[in-house]
Every structure is written in structure tokens, then in C-alpha cells.
Amino acid sequence: MTRTAERTEKAERRTPKGTRLGYGMRLPEYLSVISVLSALSVSCKENSRPPQEFDGPGALGYIQTQVAFGPRIPGTEAHRRMGDWLDSLLRQRADTVIVQSWNHLTARGDTLPLRNFIARFNPTAEKRLLLLAHWDSRPTADSPRSRDSTQPVQGANDGGSGVAVLLGVADVLKRTPSGVGVDLLFVDGEDYGDFTKDTADVLMGSRYYGAHQLPGPRPLYAVLFDLVADKDLQIYQEGNSLVGAPEVVELVWDAAKDLGYGGYFIASPRHTLIDDHIQLQKAGIRAIDVVDFDYPAWHTPDDTIDKVSSASLQIVGDVAMALVRREQ
User: Per-residue pLDDT for 196 more than 90?
Assistant: First the structure.
């Protein structure tokens, strides 16, 4: 016997048969109305939730394709092929695609051909959002946890996951256009150099974008997605985001909570990171970092496809789409 049934039976024993309750109803009628109202309440709550437009398993397929290219290190054939693939996919989905191409001279004297891809949806809209991720992968697995620092990073999560989220958003916007303008920015050269020494050889794509922003209105805000497909997803609020754009942090975490994802988007700070959002903040854009930095395979050869999850991509993709739909 369930607790609900037990309570009902006790109520019937306490109330003599035929006794009228409030509003002139007998007990069976009263219980029937309560049942209907409860069902309507559940239905209203379900209908108030936005539809699940994002395709998590499809996004996982995008990570699989990226990893199949091999490490996407600037200056390599895998990097060139990956860029061409991105360009082709985006032209099939976006209203407009802008490619920012340039050569970067590294501290060691190497010349790297780099490309940012900007996929624009509803490009004439004054009200715009910017979502971004880096699409390159790291040349050396230099984490203290790395078993072999001579190996490159596969980048299933670090690089691959952010790209997968953006491509999943592009798929949705192709099917169901947005009333608000959306720019999807795929930045290059984020992870090439040493973040503590060769500062000019990291965050290259976001720095270039900040110095060569598109004409027209700036986005309301920007959200960077990085390391967001870990099977054990725990996204804490990032320190430089809280300093540079606290209201955007609150907006994103509230959207996650509304979707029932408060257990994954944890509303407290843990890490303070140097990432692409810093360069956008310097360029006057309210930008934050959505990142799960508690990822043991970060900057190791073990950042492979078995470490990522379509369920985690679904959660983050749902939040990304909720932000877009909220503005329209």
C-alpha cells in the first residue's frame, strides 16, 4: 500500500459516509477534483519547460569526428582538415559564415596558419548573443598527471566538447531559426603555447577576434564552453567570470537551475582560469567561462573519447539553447 492510499483510507474512516466537505462536495467527489488538479499542476510544470531541442548523442558524434582527425595542432595536416570540415558544416547551417585568417609567428620562430570561424544566425538582428569554443588541441601533454609529456593531447573534451556544443546549437538554429541574432565563434590557437611563459602563443584566436570585432552591435554577452563533456559533470562558477561579468554568471546558472540541472551547474566558485573569455573581456564584451576544470585527463594523452558523455553534452546543450530562447 502506498502512503497516498493509506492516507485516503484513513480519511474515509474519519469522515462518515455521505458527509459533505467544502464547496458542497462529498468525499469521493472531493478526491476526484484533487486528483484532476494534481494532474493539471504536473502538466503545467512540464509544459512550462522549454522543449529539448539539442541532440546530445548527435553532439557526441561531432566529438568522434574531431578525434578521428587526430590532434588538431596548428600547422599540422589534421588541423587543416579539421578547419575545412568546420567550414563546410557551418556553411550548410548558418546564414553567414565569416572566416578570419592570419599567420602567427611564435616565440620559437614558427609560423602558424590560423583561422577563426564565425557562424552567424539572423545576422541583421540588433539583439545578439555570442557563444564560443576553441577548436585546436594541445601539442604536448604537459599536465603533472601526464604519463608521457612527449605526446600530444587528443582533445576529446578539451576542444572537442565545446565545438560539439556549438555545432549542436547550429543544428537546432538551422531547423528552428531564432528571433535573436546568434554568433557561434570557433577560435583557433587557444592551447598552443605555455600559459605561464609564452603568453603570446596562447588564446591567439580570441585575442585576434577581440582586435577584429565584426561591425554592428556588440553581443549582449558571450559564453565560452570548454571541457563540458566529462562523464562526471560538475561545472562550478569560474573566478574571472564572476569578476568580469557576474550578472551573466547568474543568468546562466539560473537557466540551468530552471531546467533541473542545478546539481551539475553548481552555484559556487572553485577555479580561476586564464581562458578565451579573458581576451573578450579585455575587448569590452561581457564574457564568462562555462568549464568543468575538475577533469583528471586534462592536458594528458588520456583525454580520449571514452572520457566524455552524450548525457553531459545534452545538459550543457540544453542550457545553451535555453539562453538563446530566453532572449527571443
Answer: no
